[in-house]
Design a protein that fits this description.
Helix content is 38%, strand content 14%. The protein has helices at 4-14, 23-32, 44-52, 70-76, 93-99, 118-123, 136-151, 154-163, 191-200, 217-223, 230-236, 256-261, 279-288, 327-345; strands spanning 34-38, 56-60, 82-85, 105-108, 127-129, 183-187, 207-211, 225-227, 239-242, 267-270, 293-296, 316-318, 353-354. It has a 7-stranded parallel beta sheet, sandwiched between helices. Strand 1 (34-38), helix 3 and strand 2 form a beta-alpha-beta unit. It is elongated and about 75 Å long.
Length: 356
């Protein structure tokens, strides 16, 4: 797993300092540097790598609060050799046409790549770097936190304490569901799914089950998890954590059919992609008591409008896509994205490359 510490040698490999002495020499060297556009004010570790590399000249959209406007992006990418983006940017044929034939490398600061048109990138011979693994710990921690907050009704309880709802002690007020002696189901068993299970095991979980496109015995053996069908995952899970990628096959796979098979005491957690859930079906399942509660870190769209019906439910906890939001992880992601970009521009193997 790549951590900040593990990336430091890679950072040093990517850094070669410019000789800044004569102004004319510097100007000449600047004119030969490869051009890069960065679509967001990424965390400082990644920007430092680009700045000190002596390999590229880069321009960036200098904001972390507002994505670069589409028209601005289409202008800024013209003639660039490399592009470093985040998941808010749609990389499609229109953008690639605007960039032109110089664009050879795209590096996304994300583990997901549903914002990229992979067919167009493959057709144009553009190499793609991404940032898996560095966010495994952060996403697993957040998933456990969201699961506990949802199952033990922490958000609701904090609201009651703050707004005067805390009265006399009551026998069943704000009761939730325990992990002890439970069955935890994982939909999509990758590194994040394993990391979630490893963190939940000390809570005395009785059994881990999972489903995926095929059994994954190597990963499953690490957490003593049993492969089951999707139907059995729904029927047996007391807690169901969704960790799969968003693909045409998984789009809205968590729908009325799935929820109807789940226990009325089940807790549904999604920290993967909002598109794997049919939100209207989830709303109905929560309203009708078909399932007990849901915790979501991802939605469609993002941000979810404050008027959305899911926000009206006490048994639905919604977070603003913060699973990887730790200082350590976001800096590691930006470092990996920067190193992927520089290595790709040199024609060398990236640390993490999508092989199209």
């Amino acid at each position: 797993m790549w951590s900040r510490v593990a990336l430091h040698p890679l950072q040093r490999l990517s850094v070669s300092h410019l000789n800044l002495s004569p102004t004319k020499t510097l100007q000449k060297k600047m004119s030969t540097l490869q051009r890069v556009y960065v679509t967001r004010q990424i965390p400082p570790d990644g920007l430092k790598i680009l700045r000190e590399s002596g390999q590229v000249q880069f321009e960036l959209w200098n904001s972390d609060d507002v994505p670069v406007p589409r028209n601005e992006l289409l202008q800024k990418v013209k003639g660039v050799d490399g592009l470093l983006c985040v998941l808010t940017e749609k990389i499609d044929a229109e953008l690639l046409d605007a960039a032109g034939p110089n664009l050879k490398v795209l590096s996304t600061m994300s583990v997901g790549f549903d914002h990229l048109n992979l067919e167009e990138l493959k057709k144009r011979g553009i190499r793609v770097g991404y940032t898996p693994e560095v966010l495994t710990d952060a996403v697993a921690e957040l998933t456990v936190a969201l699961l506990l907050a949802t199952s033990r009704r922490l958000i609701e309880a904090a609201h009651e304490a703050k707004t005067g709802g805390w009265g006399t002690w009551r026998t069943l007020w704000l009761c939730g569901y325990e992990l002890a002696n439970s069955t935890v189901g994982i939909f999509g068993l990758g590194r994040i799914g394993v990391a979630i299970a490893e963190r939940l095991a000390p809570f005395k979980v009785k059994r881990f089950i999972y489903t995926d496109v095929a059994p994954r015995p190597d990963l499953a053996s690490q957490i003593n998890a049993e492969f089951v069908s999707m139907d059995e995952l729904a029927k047996q899970s007391d807690f169901l954590a969704v960790c799969c990628a968003l693909t045409p096959e998984t789009k809205e796979i968590c729908n009325k059919d799935l929820f109807s098979k789940m226990k009325k005491t089940s807790i549904f957690i999604n920290t993967s992609r909002g598109g794997v859930v049919n939100q209207e079906d989830l709303y109905e399942a929560l309203c009708s008591g078909q399932i007990a509660a849901a915790g979501l870190d991802v939605t469609v769209p993002e941000p979810l409008p404050t008027s959305h019906p899911l926000f009206t439910l006490k048994n639905c906890v919604i977070l603003p896509h913060i699973a990887s939001a730790s200082y350590t992880t976001r800096n590691a992601m930006s470092s990996l994205a920067a190193n992927n970009l520089l290595l790709g521009l040199r024609g060398e193997p990236m640390i993490k490359e999508l092989h199209l």
